[in-house]
Automatic annotation (TrEMBL):
<feature type="domain" description="SHSP">
    <location>
        <begin position="23"/>
        <end position="135"/>
    </location>
</feature>
<comment type="similarity">
    <text>Belongs to the small heat shock protein (HSP20) family.</text>
</comment>
<dbReference type="InterPro" id="IPR031107">
    <property type="entry name" value="Small_HSP"/>
</dbReference>
<protein>
    <submittedName>
        <fullName>Hsp20/alpha crystallin family protein</fullName>
    </submittedName>
</protein>
<dbReference type="InterPro" id="IPR008978">
    <property type="entry name" value="HSP20-like_chaperone"/>
</dbReference>
<dbReference type="InterPro" id="IPR002068">
    <property type="entry name" value="A-crystallin/Hsp20_dom"/>
</dbReference>
<dbReference type="Pfam" id="PF00011">
    <property type="entry name" value="HSP20"/>
</dbReference>
């Protein structure tokens, strides 16, 4: 269903731990859960503090791209930041979706800082029964 394709994520996590934020490592990836529920595939991304208008979703050739921007809340001429530990900036994540998913009918919802995508399983990928014709059935049809 979903193919993991970010081999450098663990390297980024380790570099962030060793060197701290702001070094060569990429911005932190948005954490996600992915699971199959009946005839659909569900992917949930944690995006706390991101407004729905700052989220972009694109699907191109079975590649789903989620891009979000978390902007600082306290900005302006008379604002003097005392502590700034919460990450800001643009975050993006790409998922390679299998051919068994119907990318034309992705449903997205955003509630309480969680972006939830529901992707239906394609009809061609659902299990179906195949009838088997035997030699007796063929002879009956020929003789009848």
């Amino acid at each position: 269903m979903l193919m993991r394709t970010d081999p450098f994520r663990e390297l980024d996590r380790l570099s962030h731990q060793v060197f701290g934020p702001g070094t060569w490592s990429r911005p932190a990836a948005m954490p996600m859960d992915a699971y199959r529920a009946g005839d659909q595939f569900v992917v949930a991304f944690d995006l706390p503090g991101v407004s729905p208008e700052a989220i972009e979703l694109d699907v191109e050739r079975n590649v789903l791209t989620v891009k979000a921007e978390r902007r600082p809340e306290a900005t302006g001429e008379h604002v003097e930041m005392q502590v700034a530990e919460r990450p800001h900036g643009v975050y993006s994540r790409q998922l390679f979706l299998g051919d068994t998913l119907d990318t034309d009918h992705v449903h997205a919802s955003y509630e309480a800082g969680v972006l939830t995508l529901r992707i239906p399983i394609a009809e061609k990928a659902k299990p179906r029964r195949i009838s088997i014709a035997g030699a007796e059935n063929e002879q009956r049809e020929i003789n009848a």
